[in-house]
Amino acid sequence: MDRRLKSTLTAMNHFSVFTMVSAFTVATGLSAISVAKADEVITPWGEPDLQGIWTDEFDAPLQRSAKFANQEFFTAIQREELDKQRAAHYVSGDSRRERGTVNDVNGTDNSTVFLSIKHTGPRTSLIVDPPNGRIPPLTPEAQRAAAADQEFRLALLQSTDACKNREPTCAGGKYDPTPSPRFAESPPRYHTGNAARINRNDGPEDNAPQDRCLPSGLPEFGHFVGSFRRIVQTPGGISMFYDVAHGQGWQRNIVMNGSPHLPAHIRQWFGDSRGRWEGNTLVVDVTNFSPKTDFFGSRENLHLVERWTRTRPETLAYEVTIDDPTVWTRPWTARQEFTRQSDQANRIYYEPRCAEGNYALPGQLHGRRVEERALAEGRGPDPRTKDIVGGPPSPRQDPLQ
């Protein structure tokens, strides 16, 4: 059997990569990259070959900072200065160093040890359209939904130290020692605000998706502890496995037979991916997302058009156009470039698994019930006055962001 075909048919095993990625070559924009000749990266059955393990070796913010206005690329001096600032930020990023503080008591580890600290990339934002590198404005409908979500979150926080101490998590709220009468209400929307958790533990849905072993899904723009994707092709099919942090691995299958999307009433967490080839580029149309998914407020109406192009033997260009007319006033496009990782060095992969959902989540729910019983028996404070959404500064507060 041809060696590459054999490798393709046996490469479906899952993987996890936990190494820090460093790169010392200068990356260029997608428009400046010349596409490799077709016969250099072709599968045995004649399709462009996108197979391998790929990651982005440079960091770039999703949105462009106002500081850089309409500047699409950093200068070499700016990148060097950002690298210095970010190195200092992460070295001093252990919020538990001041012993005896709330963060010290609440903390269980120094989260910075899990981070993949990469060099600053050439782009000032992943977003390339609109030209200002920013997500387009929300529609009036989306603004109202976001306001309702925030109002509910602040109601659940009103009697906690987060509002009493005017912490950022209570911005826009007001302290009231009496727990909100809305505490027992369901959120305005499923999963509302749960990416940052809400201030109760009445059920699993009150916790963040990662606590429940629910991966973030598409589009996937990286993660603060690293982001890898493995592409496997067979005649008539393409599979991509994503490894995006602590057990958040997930797999998508791209249908390549020209069939239409699933019926509108069939909804999936990762949507329905239908692919086709346009020259050397894999174009994937993704629809049919579940209303329980949430990408910056976009749910069942989310529509993605992805473009994957093998630009050189070791580079893969990725571009995705994101559209939801119920959320944004116009579509927007982001662009990344991935570098191929060693198949030999990563030949053994362990299936990612989510310990949080298996162990921590039942413990959180049980702990809240214990606190409620203690209150009923006069042995403890009202758990509704406890802030469970604050805590140490997030490692995402990166100078690059």
Question: In short, what is this structure?
Answer:
The protein has 401 residues and is α+β, with helices and mostly antiparallel strands. Helices cover 18% and strands 18% of the residues. Strands 1, 4, 5, 6, 7, 8, 9, 10, 11 and 12 form a ten-stranded antiparallel β-sheet that branches. The chain has a two-stranded parallel sheet with strand order 2-3.
Explain how this protein is built.
The protein has 401 residues and is α+β, with helices and mostly antiparallel strands. The chain has a domain at 140-213 and 353-385. The protein has 6 helices and 12 strands. It has helices at 3-9, 76-91, 102-106, 140-157, 161-164, 355-376, and strands at residues 52-55, 58-59, 119-120, 127-129, 228-234, 237-243, 250-255, 272-278, 281-287, 303-312, 315-323, 332-341. Strands 1, 4, 5, 6, 7, 8, 9, 10, 11 and 12 form a 10-stranded antiparallel sheet that branches. Strands 2-3 form a two-stranded parallel ribbon. A hairpin with a 2-residue loop joins strand 5 and strand 6. The radius of gyration is 23 Å and the shape is globular. Mean pLDDT is 82; it is low at 1-36 and 391-395.
Oligomeric state of the chains in view: single chain
Percent in helix: 10-25%
Q: Output the radius of gyration.
A: 23 Å
Question: What's the average pLDDT?
Answer: 82
**Separation of the first and last Cα atoms:** 48 Å
Question: Segments where pLDDT lies below 50 for 5+ residues?
Answer: 1-36, 391-395
Query: Counting H and I runs of at least 4 residues, what is the number of helices?
Result: 6
SSE run:
HEEHHEEHHEEEEEEEEH
Strand coverage percent: 15-25%
Please report the total strand number as a whole number. Answer: 12
Sheet with most strands = 10 strands, antiparallel
Shape: globular
Please identify the structural class as seen in this structure.
alpha+beta
